[in-house]
Amino acid sequence: MNTASIPLLILGAIALALLCAGGYALFGKPRSAAPKKRQRQVVSGFAIAGGILLGALLVGCLVFCIGIAFFGVESSRISSKPLAIVLAAASFCVIAFFIQRWAKYFAGWTALSVLNALLMASSGHLVNNPSVPMPRSAALIMAGLIVISLIASLRFRKGYKLNAVDKASLLLWVLAFAIGANTERYMLIAVTVGCAGLVLASIYHRYNHRHLRAKHDHLLVDSR
């Protein structure tokens, strides 16, 4: 068996297990309040786990296909650049479609990215490719930029409604991440662009929030 297919088999097994367990939890027939509550918790837990798995697959497909289409990455599975572009576009569209659902987990994702940047600063090479050196100063700068991105995205908590600028900044960050993951040359530039988009979206949110609050206060004063 090709060793490259082992991760795909593992992901497939996890997806099948989630599907079976989620189906059992969803279509079971609880007879009392306690089992019904546990059923809802199980369904919710598997929905989150399934979403995380789907997100990992979509982002992985986006990174992989962008690498093949634009950065000369070779693959025995996808040898056609047009096909890679189509798959990358499809993955990006699905990511964009579910953006309201995954935005609340974005801060946790960036926290893991900070950890990866610190590991690169410590080791002096890429986390996923030890043969490629990574300047420690660049890794530390990248960690700082990702921390800024994390702070700018803390408002994307549960119940927060994304506006158009928020969505554009998040999608820009995902695209920048996919580009940076494929090339050491543009990695720092990509992270900088993604960070700048989130910061600008945060500034816009604060300005818009203050403007709406001032308008509301003005209407209250006029009504008196």
Report a brief summary of the structure.
The chain is mainly alpha-helical and 224 residues long.
Could you explain how this protein is built, in words?
The chain has about 220 residues and is mostly helical. The protein has two domains: about 100 residues; about 120 residues, no CATH class. About 75% of the residues lie in helices and about 0% in strands. The protein has eight helices and no strands. The N and C termini lie far apart (about 75 Å). About 25% of the residues are buried. The N terminus is likely disordered.
Short key terms for the protein model shown above:
224 residues, mainly alpha, 76% helix, globular
Percent helix = over 70%
Low-confidence stretches: 1-7
Radius of gyration, CA atoms, in whole angstroms: 21 Å
Sheet-strand content, in percent, reads under 5%
Taking the alpha carbons of the first and last residues, their distance comes to 77 Å
User: Count of DSSP helices?
Assistant: 8
How are the elements arranged and paired?
Blueprint: H1 6-27, H2 33-70, H3 81-97, H4 99-102, H5 106-123, H6 136-152, H7 164-180, H8 187-223
Helix pairs in contact: 1-2, 2-3, 2-7, 5-6, 6-8, 7-8
